């Protein structure tokens, strides 16, 4: 394979010396990736050995075999060195700035959300911390081949700034919740906070602004309806946690006839195609049918759900029913990884265990879920999620030269069951090289090391005291 591409490049050099061919040699592309096994993740799941991907501006303009090298010329060429060339992965549910708290609260706290997460955030979150932690998280994502992430958090304008500095794509949902939080002194202040943020980023090439009502039990019916109306007016997504815990409907203050959170959302008129639900663990068949009917997105977070012992989502059933199912990690306190590599094997293995069936959710389907599936969950499948002409150039190259990647008979199996973040060699987002040969091109980890060390030392003592108190708290809602 390498020899063939060498011959082609030598012949290109020879031809460039020939006057009659000079016109053909003019650049008609910006970036060409060659000498890789291209996983297109298109509708036919086409794989092209010795494949070539051609990029111009922010888009893919050609995908095919080596013949494309005779047709396209670009100032930048990347030799994939026999690696795997694939769409960037999409982490469709995260709370990235919580990377500042990664590794805390691991002492076995039963009421972790209310007795630990929320008090920790109330005390330690700030605009500055969110900005710096997002930068750390975005570098982690870029280095591990995630090119798009969806997030529900606070000060989303700071997150947008940091994400753009690193060069990633993101769907950023401003959290709306019934108590005061870092960026809103009044309950539900996120609704107001979101407005200028949405207006500023509505047409941004990398950032899709969104609303993020926290959950059905932390946001009132009226506020969910108000957000639904605003999301329609602005045409932005609504990200929300749904059916993460059993019997969430019992926590809803304004009971309806609904016997599940999905039925409740349906009944109050807010379940529609702009909604992206995270978790969806405790879903009846009727709930799944309602989600499908609404054309809503669902994000499966297997690693966080197993770690939190919340259950196994019916992801395989929904995937088979051709629903919009993507993968997520949830926040860095929930699965401790922001990349999707470990999540890939969890995604498959937990479904096999749930169904007692080793034949389901084969690696090819897992990669589908991690790429085009995530794009579908976010309703971005026309833009990202596969390597096809006209799509945004969000591309990664995964090397296959390391010991853990050998042998590589089936690229999907290699990716799902062998690869780890350090195998990602190159990350390209919107046509721009963010990392090449493991070197970040946009921002260096050393640039932010001091700020990370500063927040770490500021948080450590408080967190230790908080965990002593939290460990005694048993009720789920106090
Ligand atoms: Zn979450």
TrEMBL record:
Residues 84-434 form the Amidohydrolase-related domain. Keywords: Hydrolase, Signal. InterPro entries: Amidohydro-rel, Metal-dep_hydrolase_composite, Metal_Hydrolase, MTA/SAH_deaminase. GO terms for molecular function: hydrolase activity, acting on carbon-nitrogen (but not peptide) bonds. Residues 1-22 form the signal peptide. Gene3D superfamilies: Metal-dependent hydrolases, Urease, subunit C, domain 1. Belongs to the metallo-dependent hydrolases superfamily. ATZ/TRZ family. This is Predicted chlorohydrolase/aminohydrolase. It comes from Aliivibrio fischeri (strain ATCC 700601 / ES114). The lineage of its organism: Bacteria, Pseudomonadati, Pseudomonadota, Gammaproteobacteria, Vibrionales.
